[in-house]
């Protein structure tokens, strides 16, 4: 597989703020890639560099085989973008904006346009200033999804959508995947990324801290275990992968890295297990761990 | 009205640079005009001669109003600066009120604030307090400046309060226009149009002869300040009219606030087409800017018509008045006076057109800061294509605006002297020669936009400096090198058109535009 987006060592500062700090990101052609991180992590900044709207201080960025800063117009023919802050022209109707952005990109698929308008329940005759945030986002989404491009770059596209529309959006992204398009989906909502993405990169403080398939990431999660043992829990504390160990007599509670589960269970069994409850790993927990570190 | 004081403090904080600059400017020019006029017209004879020419010349009358009392220095100050002082303070009030009402609402910040413990009327009340308060402060300080220059206190207060009264009326006018549309541009445009009408009504009234419609000045807030006759009769009672107008306008606006939704205007937006036909950046620029171009062209055509219709009277009055005729003969006769009139008028039109040009060009910046440039620049549209779309519109639009003004001047004057064929092209030319100077100011704006985007607003300072230097520089007795700072100083004066200065002004403009574009090509998009 080839890379649709490949970024390494990217640095971008705004005065004293270091928005991107040695960021590395790789998006394979044909995948839906989740770009996950808390507010202010640097998602929009990365995307703007990929679009040639901002210039990186250092590092390399390649987009569809080209340089996003130099080959801007040629690359933009092959992608569509939904910004995080969609602001429409007050006097233009939603339909006019959809057609404008589509034409600037080289054409709109009429049939698809109508179909999307219907699915998103969007009235294209309203003026820009009368749309709510969610509806402005729908305008940008319809414009992007109705154009014939290889790559979709979506910056928190669902932050104003209600749950019903969120489901429609997920349907549409799955449809794009089937058609072989590449999607970079930035989000701060884990559930959305879990539901849609083949691979995920987690960004924090301008740096990608984890990247991989959802299965890969699950390996990084921890299982919570609480157990009542026959004797004192010897040797548990010394094992690698055991965290937050609490011992109360013969009772133990701790968390264990999913990869280290086997040796730890063996140690428990050696002490004799009376009762055992375990909570399965969730990405949520991994995600929160990174979020909390960011604070 | 709960929360008004917090909002007033917020507004004062946001305008902590802007407001002092306005105050300094309006008070400073009052003082320096007084001292300059004292030097120029120290003797009684020189004043009498000025009075004779000023009041006999419809051009002067239309531009500055009558010189009621030339025996005192105060009377001269009122004549030379009173109308402009009113114009400037009106612009101040307009910008401040719109900025803190409709523009805030448009940006969605009022919604944020309305959700806190703030009364429904608080944003409007705060804007009125800030703009009205600043107007009064300017008026009082102007009075003190005049007293400081040894003028009669009664006249000084009459003058200062007259200026303040225009500020108050336009505080009310923009409080009202801010309610009408969802768009702050439209609010400012409607209030600005009203200011234009205000100026022209009094121009028409002042320039009208004995039998003409002199009463027109009574329908203009700036005309009211003339009717006060500061340093003459000091008719303070006239100021009751603007006071009532202010109270009425603010009251109506406050009523409208209770009748409409936050974020919306008084008139609901109608649905538009479901399909769009815009397919290029220039198509978009045309769509976004054509309303403003049509408005400006119509307004300047109107200004041209008014000035054009006065021109003949300039010559006529000289021919009818033998005493004056002798004076005028020395400066080249009636025709020379008509020419001088057109030279001044076309320069004024050039200055006005530069305001159009710069605001049309700065559309680039507002598109950028409102995040509307981003989706367009994320399509195959190049940076060059995007900048060019608005820049070309501004540069060519400036030509259209000036040509409309020239058309108005030429049509009316040509018909009056029955020589349309010769006059019309001459007037079109006289208006259009101003274009390169206006382009230079647009070039400065694009340079700031391209290289120092956060300082784009400084373009307005540059425009204001050119305006003040050109309009008031000669009266203030400034050195030539200071006057040379304004590109309009270098435009050849009608009727002696030479192409040298036009060529190099154009070259300077092109250099500035190219540098500005090169800067933008290399920089980040910022807000
Ligand atoms: N134009 C800018 N000027 C100054 N700081 C900025 C600018 N754009 C972004 N930042 C800062 O860079 C960091 C990353 O922002 P952003 O990329 O918008 O984060 P995200 O999209 O992940 O929420 C934040 O700390 C933000 O305040
Ligand atoms: Mg963001």
Explain this structure.
The complex is a heterodimer of chains A (295) and B (527). The mean pLDDT of chain A is 89. In chain A, strands 5-6-7-3-8-9 form a 6-stranded mixed β-sheet, sandwiched between helices. Helix content of chain A is 34%, strand content 31%. The relative contact order of chain A is 0.14. In chain A, strand 1 and strand 2 form a beta hairpin. Chain A is of the alpha/beta class and 295 residues long. Chain A has 2 domains: 211 residues, P-loop containing nucleotide triphosphate hydrolases (Rossmann fold), CATH 3.40.50.300; 75 residues, Alpha-Beta Plaits, CATH 3.30.70. With 527 residues, chain B is an all-alpha fold. Chain B has a domain of 267 residues. In chain B, helix 15 runs parallel beside helix 20. The longest helix of chain B has 40 residues. Chain B is globular. Chain A: Belongs to the ABC transporter superfamily. Chain A: Keywords: Antibiotic resistance, ATP-binding, Nucleotide-binding, Transport.
At a glance:
The complex is a heterodimer of chains A (295) and B (527). Chain A is an alpha/beta fold.
Cα-to-Cα separation, first versus last residue of chain A: 37 Å
Query: How many domains in all of chain A?
Result: 2
Determine the CATH superfamily of the largest domain in chain A: P-loop containing nucleotide triphosphate hydrolases
Structural class of chain B: mainly alpha
Bound ligands: adenosine-5'-diphosphate, magnesium ion
Number of strands of chain A: 13
Shape of chain A: elongated
Ends distance of chain B: 32 Å
Largest Cβ-defined interface: A-B, 42 and 37 residues
Rg of chain B, Å, rounded: 24 Å
- Oligomer state equals heterodimer
- The CATH architecture assignment of the largest domain in chain A turns out to be 3-Layer(aba) Sandwich
Number of helices of chain A: 10
Q: In DSSP terms, counting alpha (H) and pi (I) runs of 4 or more, how many helices of chain B?
A: 23
> Structural class of the helix and strand makeup of chain A?
alpha/beta
Strand content of chain A: 25-35%
What Rg of chain A, in angstroms, do the CA atoms define?
A: 23 Å
Spatial ordering of strands, largest sheet of chain A: 5-6-7-3-8-9
Organism (chain B): Lentzea jiangxiensis
Transmembrane segments (chain B): 17-37, 79-97, 124-148, 154-176, 188-205, 236-257, 293-314, 340-362, 392-415, 427-451, 458-477, 497-520
Protein name (chain B): ABC-2 type transport system permease protein
Keywords (chain B): Membrane, Transmembrane, Transmembrane helix
